[in-house]
Design a protein that fits this description.
Length: 335
């Protein structure tokens, strides 16, 4: 029997000890199930094992003693499934160092790789051909999941049996996966909403009002849909939890690191200063130029994404970017 056909997944590992990896590990370990988490930082490993906390990336969350951490990727073998929660710019190097095996890999990061224009599943297919893959993505602030607040999420895998088996294993009374077979749609929704959250933060920081934010969410969703449909995503995935759901969450709250980065840009602070020395990620800052370039190459119109890419690169000022967006020729809404 292959892992894809397994009906139960009991032993989980988590690759990545940032806020989201820690919250997902805690979700699975909360009732005492053993969960092994790989973290890159020795101080994170030590704090999880000795104090059952991750003060660096998920301060305030009490972790279950059945969640244990390691800094040795080699020990993540003999498990039923691995949740991979490494920011996309570092993903390829971490995957290349993972031990071989047949446990399905569930990708939880939201971004597109520079240079290759790959999403996480594309990278994984190169490194682990033939292995089972899934994508877990949706409106899920890590601290809320760790606190046991109600959350719904998309769980996509090409193989419906794998998606359903994983959904059963990950579901909790307050954590509800909705299954799908559309991995690319889930990946595109998560990557593009990060960029649009920066845009909405800019509008907030610059004091441009709530009408402007609603316009950005709608027109940003149109960009996500154009890009997604061109790459074979299903419209229903983009309109679901991994697309519109996450867009609404992160475009309306400064708990989003991407939105908060945008607020700083909107107040006129420099991107370089806002990005310097930060330990946490705002994936949209990495992904914006990548997605903008991929869209240009495929002649997909994404003016908001393009403006965020130029603002993050320090190539334009907020007032000029807004003026450029507002002075585009009038057009039918459906385009
Ligand atoms: N925090 C959240 O609420 C959510 C985050 N995500 C996504 O999950 C992914 C991970 O984000 P977080 O857990 O929030 O990260 P985080 O911002 O809390 O922590 C940064 C992470 O990057 C890792 N890192 C830094 N430099 C690295 C390197 N050179 N090699 C490998 N790893 C390195 C750190 O070890 C740490 O795990 C991102 O793609 C994010 O978009 C998805 C859903 C919710
Ligand atoms: O993706 C997230 C919630 O779904 C977290 O968003 P930020 O990375 O912007 O904090």
């Amino acid at each position: 029997m292959t892992r894809d056909c397994m009906t139960s997944f009991e032993k989980f590992g988590v690759v990545g000890g940032g806020a989201w990896g820690t919250a997902l590990a805690q979700l699975l370990a909360a009732e005492g199930a053993p969960v092994r988490l790989w973290a890159r930082e020795e101080d994170v490993v030590a704090a999880i094992n000795a104090e059952h906390r991750n003060p660096l990336f998920l301060p305030g969350a009490a972790l279950s003693p059945s969640l244990t951490a390691t800094s040795d990727l080699g020990t993540l073998s003999g498990l039923d499934a691995l949740l991979v929660v490494v920011p996309v710019p570092y993903l390829r190097a971490v995957l290349a160092a993972l031990p071989a095996g047949d446990a399905p890999l569930i990708f939880c990061s939201k971004g597109m790789e520079a240079g290759s224009f790959d999403f996480p599943i594309d990278i994984a297919r190169e490194i682990f051909p033939g292995r089972g893959f899934a994508v877990l993505s949706g409106p899920t602030f890590a601290h809320e999941v760790a606190a046991g607040l109600p959350t719904a999420i998309t769980l996509a895998a090409e193989n419906p049996a794998l998606a359903e088996g994983l959904a059963r294993a990950l579901a909790r009374p307050h954590f509800r996966p909705y299954v799908s077979t559309d991995m690319i749609g889930a990946e595109i929704g998560g990557a593009i909403k990060n960029v649009l959250a920066i845009a909405c933060g800019i509008v907030d920081g610059a004091g441009l009002g709530l009408n402007a934010r609603a316009a950005l969410i709608s027109r940003g969703f149109a960009e996500m849909t154009r890009f997604g449909l061109a790459r074979g995503a299903l419209a229903e995935t983009l309109a679901g939890l991994a697309g519109l759901g996450d867009l609404v969450l992160t475009c309306t709250s400064s708990n989003s690191r991407n939105f908060a980065l945008g607020q700083g840009l909107g107040r006129g602070e420099s991107a370089a200063v806002l990005m310097a020395d930060r330990r946490t990620v705002a994936e949209g800052a990495f992904s914006a130029p990548v997605i903008a370039a991929a869209a240009r190459a495929d002649a997909i119109d994404m003016p908001i994404t393009d403006a965020v890419a130029r603002l993050v690169a320090g190539e334009t000022r907020v007032a000029d970017a807004i003026q450029a967006l507002l002075s585009r020729p009038l057009r039918p809404e459906g385009r």
